[in-house]
Amino acid sequence: MTAENPANTIALSRRALVLNGAVAAALAVSLPARAVAQATTRTPLKAGDIRPFRVDVPAAELVDLRRRLAATRWPDPETVGDRSQGVQLATLQALVRYWETDYDWRKAEAKLNALPQFLTDIDGLDIHFIHVRSHHANALPLIMTHGWPGSVFELLNVIGPLTDPTAYGGSAEDAFHLVLPSIPGFGFSEKPKGTGWNTARIASAWDVLMKRLGYTSYVSQGGDWGAIISDAMGRQAPAGLLGIHVNRIERSTTIPPEVAKALRSGDPAPADLTAEERLVFDQAREFLNKGFGYAAIMGTRPQTIGYGLTDSPVALAAWFYDKLADWVFTRGEPERSFSRDEILDNITLYWLTDTGTSSARIYWESNASNTKLAPVSIPAAVTIFPGEVYKPPKSWAARAYHNLIYYNRVDKGGHFAAWEEPELFSTELRAAFRPIRRLWHTNK
Questions:
Q1: Could you confirm whether 363 is annotated as catalytic?
Q2: Would you call 415 a catalytic residue per the annotation?
Q3: What angle do CA 240, 244, 248 make, to 5 degrees?
Q4: What pLDDT was estimated at residue 36?
Q5: Rounded Cα–Cα distance for residues 261 and 267 (Å)
Q6: Catalytic status, residue 406
């Protein structure tokens, strides 16, 4: 079954409808109890069904958001003159003031609704995805996955360059059919009600999705958790997966054992490291010592941090903004990489879908699985962006990717590469998948 012939539009989310009903009750709007119950119950999909999806947030939920923002109880300002204690008070107050008074979610909603969006049930969960087919013949099917604290919003600006390259200075031979799913527990995808939705299970679900859409051959791409999911797909190597591209490399699969031991113990770097390797070692130590606290918390206590992320939009914004500031190429100044609206589109999506807690659980699931990761043997491509947290040399990357067909270091862009540098990112994907595409055409 393909997504070209679906039926039955589905509304936003349980949270949106529940809050809409609660606010309506507070405003003394009379609704029969059964009507409220029906409105807050999501119609389940049948296995294999693909239905169109449209975002339609009730106005009452946006009113509730502004009310919460206006009622924020602010902490004292930091006692230092830099970001070393976290997001600075003046910075966050300015962002929240704009969020409360000037930001317009309806514009973000319109961006999503301008694209073909769908839901489909995979392994008991409704999975949300965007599916844009290229009008170019012989376009290569590509599933591309976002990360945390990102969403499909971070990928929207590459849809045009990847599906219609001739409109962006590329060649028709580099076109892709594009599938952009939301990870379970993120955005409009359903939240898992039990454990086990780790990256390996998501990887298997993505293969089901691509086959359900009629793609017998395809490639996968990702950054952050999307890269880890693409790696898992590469290790599973399902029939039809031709290769992967990642712009985030897993340290545990690439760092040599003696280097990993020194990082764990706090010992000096091994004496035989090259200058490039020593720089990577120093950056990894700095991150593990000063930048890894967020992952340690979500990997062990996602429920505890989740109370604040669910109850306070400002807590959610601070938690996310801190990582944007840490990981963009323009370190400490995400507004130089994204507009305020772009930052708030992403944060507001998490708020409206109530996925601050559920998205954090992917860290816990990763810790719980605790399995030794085998190398990827299918064709793999890597692009190293200079603002990424971990930038291994090619020799280290080859430890994880035994068929490394492409490795390139570019001169701009950070952890959110597709979001920060969509044109450069698209150029990299075209180049990375070109050898796979040629082989695919030959074997078709």
A1: yes
A2: yes
A3: 155
A4: 25
A5: 8
A6: no
CA–CA dist 363, 122 (Å, integer): 21
**Tokens for 169?**
């200075």
Buried b (16+ CB within 10 A) or exposed e, 346-376: bbbbbbbbbbbbbbbbbbbbbeeeeeebebb
- Residue at token pair 């958790």: 225
Compute the C-alpha angle 242/244/245, nearest 5°.
Answer: 145
State yes or no: pLDDT of 17 exceeds 50: no
Domains along the chain? 111-254+372-443 (3.40.50.1820)
Quote the CA–CA distance of 8 and 270 in Å, as a whole number.
Answer: 61
Question: Order of strands, edge to edge, in the sheet holding 218-222?
Answer: 50-52, 117-122, 125-132, 176-181, 140-145, 218-222, 241-246, 380-384, 404-409
Spatial separation of the C-alpha atoms in residues 412 and 424, rounded to whole Å: 9
Catalytic hit among 103, 215, 294, 363: 363
Catalytic-role residue among 136, 177, 245, 415: 415
Cα of 436 vs its chain's centroid, Å: 25
> In Å, how far from its chain's centre is CA 226?
6
Model pLDDT for residues 170-213, shown as the tens digit of each residue: 999 999 999 999 999 999 999 999 999 999 999 999 999 999 99
User: Looking at 126, 224, 326, 354, which residue is catalytic?
Assistant: 224
Q: Where are the beta strands (DSSP E) in 57-175?
A: 117-122, 125-132, 140-145
d(CA 280, CA 301): 29
Is a pLDDT exceeding 70 seen at residue 28? no
Structure tokens at 440: 């695919």
Judged against a pLDDT cut of 90, whether residue 30 lies above it is answered with no
Task: State mean pLDDT over 424-440.
Answer: 96
With bands split at pLDDT 50, 70 and 90, how would you rate the model's confidence at 270?
very high
391/232 Cα distance (integer angstroms): 20
CB atoms within 10 A of CB 260: 14
Confidence of residue 214 (pLDDT cuts 50, 70, 90): very high
2 touches 35 (CB < 8 A): no
Report the distance separating Cα 106 and Cα 59, nearest Å.
10
Nearest 10 degrees: Cα torsion 219, 225, 228, 233: -40
- HSE at residue 332, side-chain half, CA atoms within 13 A, is 6
